[in-house]
Amino acid sequence: MAKKILFQKEKKERLDKFLVEELNNLSRNQIQKLIKEGKITVNKKTVPVHYFLKKDEVIEIEEVKEFKKKKTVIKIPIIFENNDYFVINKPVGLAVEGNPKEYCLIDWLKEKNLTKTKDEEFNLRAGLIHRLDKDVSGVMLIAKNPTFFHHLKEQFKKHIVKKIYLALVYGVIERDEGQLNFLMARGEDGKMVARPLSQEGKRALTQFKVIKRFKNYTFVEVKILTGRTHQIRVHFFAYSHPVIGDKLYTQKRIKSPIGLKRLFLHSQILGFYDLNNNWQEYKIDLPKELKEILKKLK
User: Fold this and answer.
1) Alpha helices in the chain (DSSP H)
2) Is 3-61 CATH 2.60.40.10?
């Protein structure tokens, strides 16, 4: 039997966000998946994931089995920890919010009781302020209390946080440095796309510096001034220099170096102001398996 919920708030609210608060047994990713499959409807009609609810609309949710997640065997190294935040070295292969059957970073954080406060937004995110894609490794920051959560969230919003990545991209970039300024939007197939400034989309800025050029590849340092979904991957794809190992945005004809089994993208540096307004910066070197790939290139 379908579960029915009457939306009674005066202010509009996004369907998936509202249901995360209403359904304790389902994650946001699970809810979005059910919406896409038509198992969650509004007024008996299928709606997109980003649908905004209006007062007195009726949400119907098909009965779904609760998924049991497999415990991860991936270790999550804590680089630094105090009363306000964790700094971790997120391993490649660990999703921040996984599919329904996948143990993910947010599960690890919930086990640390980071959801038992009076701040609903903090509880919903379990302290997560930013994300790294599943196939991206490196430094990541997680708030341990609502005060630091909102303090850092404001810095991300104002583009104060320093975010430096290392990437290997296809082809030889002739410029020593540059800025990618494509707008970003979600395409009809659900993937993010880059668009020229004359079209509609969200502002996204990516700066890069060439570290080393190889015969078929370029090793670059990348600084993102905004934090859009898949920003580096989409921008370099639009720049005709896609990130090596990217199965989502790279064309099939582009070959990865022998031995590379992941996306060659690593979060190296993260800098921010702590609650005492002191600048903090953390750095995690390129993983061994990526260093080995660079040694093999000519």
Assistant:
1) 15-22, 28-36, 105-111, 120-125, 146-157, 231-238, 288-296
2) no
CATH 3.30.930.10 fits 78-158, yes or no: no
* Superfamily grouping for domain 164-267+291-296: Pseudouridine synthase (3.30.2350.10)
| β-bridge partners, 195 | 183
Residues of the chain with CATH 3.10.290.10: 3-61
Active site residue 133: yes
Element (H, E) at 178: strand 177-180
Rounded CA separation 62/245 (Å): 38
Q: What is the DSSP letter of 191?
A: S
Q: What is the mean pLDDT of residues 70-82?
A: 79
Query: In this predicted model, what pLDDT tens digit does every residue of 236-280 receive, in sequence order?
Result: 999 999 999 998 887 666 778 888 989 999 999 999 999 999 999
What is the model's pTM? 0.76
From the list 16, 56, 84, 133, the catalytic residue is 133
The single-letter code of the amino acid at 20 is V
> Token pair of 290, please?
């990526």
